[in-house]
Design goal:
The structure holds 2 protein chains of 2 kinds. Chain A is mainly α. Chain A has a domain at 1-44: Orthogonal Bundle (Histone, subunit A), CATH 1.10.20.60. In chain A, 39% of the residues lie in helices and 9% in strands. Chain A has 3 helices and 3 strands. Chain A has helices at 5-14, 21-41, 73-78; strands at residues 62-63, 83-84, 87-91. Chain A has a two-stranded antiparallel sheet with strand order 2-3. The longest helix of chain A is centred in the first third of the chain and has 21 residues, at 21-41. Chain A is flat and about 55 Å long. In chain B, strands 3-7-8-11-1-12-13-14-15 form a 9-stranded mixed β-sheet. In chain B, strands 6-5-16 form a 3-stranded antiparallel β-sheet, with no helix packed on it. Chain B folds into 3 domains: 27-214 and 226-243 and 262-305, no CATH class; 318-428, no CATH class; 437-494, Arc Repressor Mutant, subunit A (Orthogonal Bundle). Chain B is 40% helix and 19% strand. In chain B, strand 13, helix 5 (239-258) and strand 14 form a beta-alpha-beta unit. Classes of the chains: A mainly alpha, B alpha+beta. The A-B interface holds A 14, 16, 53-56, 58-68, 70-73, 76-77, 79, 84-95 and B 34-36, 41-43, 49-56, 59, 61, 67-73, 92, 97, 99, 101, 147-148, 152-153, 157-163, 269, 280, 283, 288, 290, 293, 295, 297-301. Strand 1 (62-63) of chain A pairs parallel with strand 2 of chain B, so a sheet runs across the interface. The structure holds zinc ion. Zinc ion binds next to helix 1 of chain B.
Chain lengths: 95, 496
């Protein structure tokens, strides 16, 4: 299945990636070959197999409603590219 | 005859001959009253210092694993069952992918295919007619953080993000597009909020954002099957605003369609100050959320036992309570409606009636004096200074003649202001009812001799004047005279 340059561009926008023309070409062909592999998987007869959404067979993993200590404000903001006035700081957003 | 569109042009060709049907669907996001967040153990307390309730899980650090809060499922199940939904035995979480500064992970954990509950309904009554509004689905999800907009923050060219709310549990309740008028929309929301509050799963505070509503609205010519193009309305933080925004949008879309133009599918923000909806065009990108099952969260299996345990724990809901009030207390439907409008008000009423078993008398005081006072002060019944015990005590004092009905209003006001025991207030403020016949006789004598002309008129047959004399006696005694005794003595003297 051929992934067009336009499709690569759309995915790049959604993922906030800036790609060069060369990269678009590369990804177009690489993504195409990945999807071709899916075509190969399609050859397997899955008639009697339920769709799998999770690799683990686990079910109902839950916890009780208990509060535990959170990180400090400093720790919370430590990895933020920009922080000020006790908050993460981002370019102005209207609305 | 003039043009219906503009009212001026007299071009009769433009008179509207198409009637439109309004189609409204509502999406409600309700914050659940759990102590901890949906997938981590951070506190959900409102109003904490920004960014003090976060952890690696809700910040979306690499390698962390979210674990579902069981109480969130319990609460969502309560709501699902209360609005008559079918509960999914197998449900799962999905990632909704988008970028926004209040969403640290770059995706929101929500449910997409296989939500927790589907196919329920909420009953609404408008203009005396009942109708079921379908609930298409209820699913669980996490809230996002908050962009701070206070003045200190507004001043510069940045936005500031508080991530305390990130991961606070929400349920999204999506109605079927079966709402036909803004009034129905408002009723649906009120009833839904009432149910959530009765279930004690959400505080329903629209201003603080723990109960939020978006609306989809479109118009189509009556008789047409296909739906018209819809707009999505946001930013309506009260029932009143939801209704006003929908009314405005109906007018706007009607004008567009009457002109032969087309409604654009878009998101519009309600501007309460200007009373208009404004397009968000340009500020929003076409969304492609690329939902997929969240591999970090295993499927949720809900068996019949679990459902039945939750069903068994459901409290009496607003509608049931209203019907019971009508039956048990014999109060009019209107009273029952008002008294059950919140669980705490209903509890207040029932406690008062238990202590003073005259349901209609209690209802009159609660719906009259009490609610009037609370409304004027913008206070909730929880903060009412007059306890049911004191209210009942005061009503007993009226009943046994200790105070007059008129003075009771003064006593109530004093109780409301001070929160004090009515007996103490009556003693201290000298408000006891005057029942001493000799003293009343003396006062009446004084009133009659001071109004000789009226007495003459009365004796000539102007019996309406009795009220005048009673009024004069009341004035003389500052409202403390026992009206029954006053009447008796007056009649005794005048009708002799
Ligand atoms: Zn956390």
């Amino acid at each position: 299945m051929k992934i067009s340059k336009e499709e690569v561009e759309k995915v790049a926008v959604l993922a906030r990636l800036a790609l060069t023309e060369g990269e678009k070409e590369t990804f177009s062909s690489e993504m195409s070959s990945i999807l071709d592999y899916f075509d190969k998987l399609k050859e397997v007869d899955t008639e009697k197999v339920a769709p799998t959404s999770h690799a683990s067979a686990g079910r109902n993993v839950m916890r009780g409603d208990e509060v535990r200590p959170s990180l400090s404000k400093e720790e919370c903001l430590m990895n933020a590219p920009d922080a000020n006035k006790g908050c993460l700081r981002v370019p102005k957003i209207i609305g | 005859m003039e043009c219906v569109s503009c009212g001026k042009c007299f071009q009769l060709e433009r008179v509207i001959n198409v009637e439109f049907e309004v189609i409204i669907g509502l999406e409600v996001h309700a914050q659940l009253l759990t102590k901890s967040k949906i997938f981590c153990s951070c506190s959900t307390v409102f109003g904490a210092e920004p960014n003090t309730h976060t952890c690696p899980v809700c910040l979306g650090m690499p390698g962390v694993l979210p674990v579902l809060n069981r109480k969130v499922v319990d609460f969502a199940l309560r709501v699902g069952l209360a609005v008559h939904c079918e509960i999914a035995h197998y449900s799962r979480f999905a990632r909704k992918n988008y970028f926004y500064p209040d969403l640290p992970k770059g995706y929101q954990i929500s449910q997409y295919e296989l939500p927790l509950a589907e196919h329920g309904y909420v009953e609404v009554t408008t203009n005396g007619k009942s109708k079921r509004i379908g609930v298409a689905r209820i699913h669980m999800e996490e809230d996002a953080g908050k962009l701070l907009h206070d003045e200190r923050m507004e001043a510069d060219s940045y936005s500031y993000v508080d991530l305390n709310r990130t991961g606070v549990p929400l349920i999204e309740i999506v109605s079927e597009p079966e709402i036909r008028t803004p009034e129905e929309a408002s009723e649906y929301l009120k009833n839904l909020r009432g149910i959530l509050q009765y279930l004690e799963v959400c505080d329903g505070n629209m201003e603080e954002g723990s109960f939020r509503c978006d609306a989809n609205i479109s118009l189509r010519p009556v008789g047409q099957q296909r739906l018209g193009t819809r707009t999505e309305l946001k930013n309506m933080n009260s029932f009143k605003n939801v209704q006003r925004a929908l009314e405005y949008e109906i007018r706007r879309q009607t004008n567009i369609l009457d002109d032969g133009s087309e409604v654009i599918q878009e998101t519009r923000l309600w501007d309460a100050a200007k009373g208009v909806t404004l397009s968000m065009r340009g500020k929003e990108e076409a969304h492609d959320y690329r939902y997929f099952p969240d591999p970090d969260l295993v499927p949720l299996i809900i068996d019949d036992d679990w459902i039945e345990v939750v069903r068994g724990s459901l409290p009496e809901l607003p509608q049931e309570k209203r019907d019971r009030f009508i039956k048990e207390y014999q109060v009019p439907e209107y009273d029952a409606e008002v008294l059950t409008s919140s669980k705490s008000l209903a509890d207040y009423y029932e406690e008062s009636v238990r202590l003073f078993p005259s349901p209609k008398v209690v209802s009159n005081w609660v719906m009259g004096e009490l609610l009037r006072r609370l409304k004027g002060d913008d206070r909730d019944i929880e903060d009412c200074p007059v306890t049911p015990r004191y209210l009942a005590k005061m009503l007993k004092m009226i009943e046994d003649g200790t105070i007059s009905g008129k003075i009771a209003k003064t006593v109530f006001e004093e109780m409301y202001l001070s929160g004090e025991d009515p007996e103490k207030l009556v003693r201290e403020k000298d408000l006891l009812q005057l029942t001493d016949e000799e003293e009343l006789d003396r006062i009446i004598e004084k009133v009659l001799s001071g109004n000789a002309t009226e007495v003459e008129d009365y004796k000539k047959g102007k019996s309406k004047l009795l009220g005048f004399f009673v009024g004069q006696v009341m004035k003389e005694t500052k409202g403390k005279a026992n009206p029954k005794l006053v009447n008796e003595i007056l009649r005794g003297r005048l009708d002799r």
